[in-house]
């Protein structure tokens, strides 16, 4: 399993991660997960351990959805079995709305993109996924992407994109962007970038259409990373992401001086 060992040794987990609380009520708690922090398990710092240290009197939070180890951003956990079941059903039925932010390598032309490559397990690697082929059948996957801005990171051209997955395949966003020719900055698994301090993928927003709907938004962690940033002037974001999300993206990711 040398490939897997090599992937895990690329980046040292944070020694003192900070977990920001986005929302807390009697049913749910939403957090902004740091990158390179696990959700649970026998590790020095996990989302579960940090929550229990912060709120020792609440029930043990229950997992509703997944977020990759290297990905930062929004995670919603349930505090009761009923609440967890209700929110979990929304994910299973694909009724939630999830938006991600990413910095990708290269200068992506302005516009809206639709990626629908099916995704399969990589038969040559225990951890990785791959784009499906006739000989390696996979499962359907759909991602919409919209360009937000362009700039430089570590003196290399990068593009900030808004992402909306309509399916939840493992590593879907990372694979779709790689296949499109714009791998995510810092993705040591699906790109040749082994030097960036983190993978630049962030779970930015989540909407849960419960009986009392919940919408969570986190800060943009990439807002200060680019130099020579130029913002997209495209008005087509609303055609895929909706006018409300478009305005929120512009307000959060394109702060005005």
Notes on the protein architecture:
The protein is of the alpha+beta class. The chain has six helices and 13 strands. The chain has helices spanning 2-8, 47-54, 81-92, 172-179, 237-241, 243-253, and strands at residues 20-24, 28-33, 62-63, 72-78, 97-105, 112-115, 119-121, 129-131, 143-153, 156-165, 201-208, 214-217, 227-231. The strands form two sheets. Strands 1, 2, 3, 4, 5, 6, 9, 10, 11, 12 and 13 form an eleven-stranded mixed sheet that branches. Strands 7-8 form a two-stranded antiparallel ribbon. Strand 3 and strand 4 (72-78) form a beta hairpin.
Q: Briefly, what is this?
A:
The chain has six helices and 13 strands. With 257 residues, the chain is of the alpha+beta class.
Structural class: alpha+beta
Secondary-structure element order, N to C:
HEEHEEHEEEEEEHEEEHH
Portion of residues in helices?
Answer: 10-25%
Radius of gyration: 18 Å
Oligomerization state: single chain
How confident is the prediction overall: mean pLDDT?
A: 90
Q: Provide the low-confidence segments as ranges.
A: 1-9
Proportion of strand residues: 25-35%
Shape: globular
Termini, distance in Å?
Answer: 50 Å
Count up the helices. Answer: 6
Largest sheet: 11 strands, mixed
Q: Can you count the beta strands?
A: 13
Topology overview:
Layout: H1 2-8, E1 20-24, E2 28-33, H2 47-54, E3 62-63, E4 72-78, H3 81-92, E5 97-105, E6 112-115, E7 119-121, E8 129-131, E9 143-153, E10 156-165, H4 172-179, E11 201-208, E12 214-217, E13 227-231, H5 237-241, H6 243-253
Parallel strand pairs: 4-11
Antiparallel strand pairs: 1-2, 2-4, 3-4, 5-10, 5-11, 6-9, 7-8, 9-10, 9-13, 11-12
């Amino acid at each position: 399993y040398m490939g897997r060992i090599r992937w895990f040794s690329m980046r040292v987990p944070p020694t003192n991660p900070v977990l920001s609380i986005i929302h807390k009520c009697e049913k749910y708690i939403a957090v902004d997960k740091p990158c390179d922090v696990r959700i649970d398990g026998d590790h020095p710092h996990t989302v579960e351990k940090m929550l229990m240290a912060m709120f020792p009197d609440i029930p043990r939070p229950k997992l509703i959805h997944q977020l990759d180890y290297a990905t930062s951003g929004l995670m919603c956990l349930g505090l009761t079995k009923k609440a967890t079941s209700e929110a979990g059903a929304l994910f299973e039925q694909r009724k939630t709305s999830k938006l991600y932010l990413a910095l990708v390598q290269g200068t992506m032309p302005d516009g809206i993109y639709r990626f629908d490559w099916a995704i399969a397990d990589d038969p040559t690697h225990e951890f990785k996924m791959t784009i499906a082929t006739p000989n390696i059948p996979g499962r359907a996957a759909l991602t919409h992407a919209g360009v937000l801005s362009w700039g430089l990171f570590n003196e290399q051209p990068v593009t900030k994109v808004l992402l909306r997955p309509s399916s939840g395949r493992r590593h879907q966003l990372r694979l779709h962007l790689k296949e499109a020719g714009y791998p995510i900055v810092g993705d040591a698994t699906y790109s040749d970038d082994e030097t960036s301090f983190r993978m630049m993928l962030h779970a930015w927003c989540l909407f849960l259409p419960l009986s009392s709907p919940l919408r969570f938004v986190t800060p943009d962690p990439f807002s200060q990373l680019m130099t020579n940033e130029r913002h997209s002037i495209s008005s087509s974001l609303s055609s895929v992401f909706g006018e409300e999300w478009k305005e929120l993206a512009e307000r959060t990711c394109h702060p005005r001086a």
